[in-house]
Amino acid sequence: MYRLFKIHNIRKTYEVDCLWDFETSDGLYKGKITVPTAWETIPELVNYKGKATYTKTMKLSGNIRLVFKGVSHTADVFVDGVHVKHHYNAFTPFYADVFLEKGEHEIKIEADNAYGENSALHVENDYYTFGGIIRPFIIEELGCAVINYIHFTPFKLGDTWRARVEVCVESKCESSCEYSLGLELDGEKFHLEKITLSPFEKKIYTNEFSFENVTEYSMENPKLYTIAATLYANGEAADDLIDKVGFREIEIRGKELLLNGKPIKIMGFNRHECYNSLGSSIPLQAMMRDLALIKEAGANSIRTCHYPNDEMFLDLCDEMGILVWEESHARGFDLKKMENPNFIPQSLDCIEEMIENHYNHPSIIMWGILNECASDTPFGRECYKTLYDKIDSMDSSRPKTSASNKNTTDICFDLEEIVSVNLYSLWYSFHPDNVSKGINDIKDHMKETGNGNKPFIISEIGAGAIYGYRNENSCKWSEERQAEILEKQLTASLEDDDVCGLFIWQFCDARVDESWFYGRPGSNNNKGIVDEFRRKKLAFNVVKNIFGKYKK
Ligand code: ADA
User: Fold this and answer.
1) pLDDT band at 259; cut points 50, 70, 90
2) What are the counts of helices (DSSP H) followed by strands (DSSP E) for the chain?
3) Same domain for 462 and 404
4) I need a labelling partner for 38 at 20 to 30 A (CA). Which of 153, 198, 321, 431 fits?
């Protein structure tokens, strides 16, 4: 299972048997492994950093697409010993197309989760880079042409919902061919056009359409529609692609963020994809349980800190009307790390794959980049600009933002539509004893830099607690201390009308690199309001009460 619904009726797709031959390159472990899985689930490999290979032999023939939803963090794909794909970044999908004669073929994936010069985004950090094929692997049989993506952009013109629909098609054959491209919404055909593709040509077809009597997508009523594109050759369906979409519009009016014209107050959580010993490869039922807990706490949003998330999780957010800040990959980079020559190319690839694949999710309401990077330096600013320009070139329908910790020295607020700041008053040192003072200083800096009339989000706020550690003096790391701090932080933030939302740091405790910073207790970032097993800390009910009180 790799999406919540079938994305092809015509294209033949199959998930391969999940048991693979597996071997670490240093000989530490040889045996079987399930796919998807983070290899840390194998007891011998709980701390393994390095390379490992996955091998499987299968009967295949013709035009084959090998689809990977996430390999951590570097993947080299070989078919019958021939290298067919190199991919970097654990958190974005990619594919390799191959032509195979009828028969048995060996698929081999070499994955690497070690840090080094070639890995600019996965570095030692305050979260853990688990290893291996962490998200689903799928095989597709392609015909003479394929639909690579549909991008659906809804917008309202007067009282009518319209949408720009962009379809990318690619020829897979050696001669020029005529096709028809058909589009349907919830089974109703709304467009058919003739197209011609030269050999191996890729083309994008764009059109705008009106849709009568459709129901708006909202948090209360997350109504989804099924869009299907079909390519016909000689009257026969040759390929198809299906996705879910919603009719909703995100706009900014001064300091407000609007969903379908109505201001929203974000009350959300930052969530790492981490589930105790399962690591970053989280089964669907556990994702669903996270969302149930998030809803129970009264939250309406999630920030996918600090990387693009599993598509099934995004599908669930769509279904449940939970709004998403989806973030490309990068956390806490100083200038030196941003100067790694791989940093910009790898960041651009990550953004491209994130937007190309996740464009249609109605739950995604903004794109984020570069959490706590060098946004206080001229070179850093150039990097922010380059990445924001990339987003604009792919999607101008969603606002852009970045979580900054540079407080009043940030020089990038003008580049983004939403100003977002990580504020840890009462826990870290920026105004250690006064939450409102921290908020006001940011507002002043926004005004002074000409950005005073923009939405302002507190992208992180929180405090640490070790599950089960109770202390009547509310000492540091006790559940009491975390609950008290969160109560003050949330109340001060939500009382302020200039703050259009906040994301608590964080939903669940998550593993970190042991050597990161000065080390964290239990090698976990313990600021979750549930621990790594999703056991509720005292703060859970405190958050629930406050979110309940401020819910509009
Ligand atoms: C930062 C950072 C998070 C996490 C947090 C913390 O704001 O964005 O990834 O490290 O601090 O817990 O200190």
Assistant:
1) very high
2) 8, 31
3) yes
4) 321
Is 112:73 a contact under the CB 8 Å cutoff? yes
Q: 36 and 162 share a domain?
A: no
CA-based R_g, the chain, Å: 24
The tens digit of pLDDT for each residue in 367-382 reads 999 999 999 999 999 9
- Out of 90, 121, 142, pick the residue that ends a domain: 142
Angle at 354 between CA 350 and CA 359, to 5 degrees: 155
In a domain, 251, yes or no: no
For residue 305, give the ligand 1 atom closest to its CA: 9
Are residue 201 and residue 283 in the same domain, yes or no?
A: no
pLDDT in tens, 403-428: 999 999 999 999 999 999 999 999 99
Rounded Cα distance, 385 and 405, in Å: 18
Show the tokens assigned to 475. 């000492």
Residue 63 has pLDDT above 80, yes or no: yes
Mean pLDDT of the chain: 97
> The domain spanning residue 269 has which CATH number?
3.20.20.80
Angle between helices 538-550 and 479-495 (to 10 degrees): 10
Q: Are 10 and 230 in contact (CB under 8 A)?
A: yes
User: Do 394 and 267 fall into the same domain?
Assistant: yes
Whole-angstrom CA distances from 197 to 57, 124, 167, 181, 233 are: 34, 46, 14, 12, 11
pLDDT for the residue numbered 431: 73
Bridge partners, 160 (sequence order): 157
Whether 160 is covered by a domain: the verdict is yes
Cα 517 to averaged position of ligand 1 atoms, centre (Å) = 11
List, chain by chain if needed, residues with CB within 6 Å of any ligand 1 atom. 126, 331, 371-372, 405, 422, 460, 505, 525, 527
Is residue 287 a part of any domain in this protein?
yes
User: Are residues 431 and 337 part of one domain?
Assistant: yes
Domain membership of residue 474 as a residue range: 263-550
Q: What is the CATH number of the domain that holds 156?
A: 2.60.40.10
Q: Which tens digits make up the pLDDT trace of 227-238?
A: 999 999 999 999
CB atoms within 10 A of CB 334: 12
Q: Name the residue of 127, 325, 372 to mutate for ligand 1: max ligand atoms within 8 A of Cβ.
A: 372
- Ligand 1 atom nearest to CA at 126: 10
Q: Which residue's alpha carbon is at the smallest distance from atom 10 of ligand 1?
A: 126
Residue 371 CA: nearest ligand 1 atom is 8
334 and 275 together in one domain: yes
Q: Which atom of ligand 1 is nearest to the CA of 525?
A: 12
26: CATH: 2.60.120.260
Q: Within this chain, do residues 156 and 138 fall inside the same structural domain, yes or no? A: no
CA distance 100 to 64: 7
Between the CA of 46 and the centroid of ligand 1 the distance, in Å, is 24
Within a domain: 237: yes
Domain count, the chain: 3
pLDDT digits (tens, 9 = 90+) for 290-343: 999 999 999 999 999 999 999 999 999 999 999 999 999 999 999 999 999 999
pLDDT tens sequence across 86-95 = 999 999 999 9
Q: Give the confidence band of 516 by pLDDT, cuts at 50, 70, 90.
A: confident
367 and 499 share one domain: yes
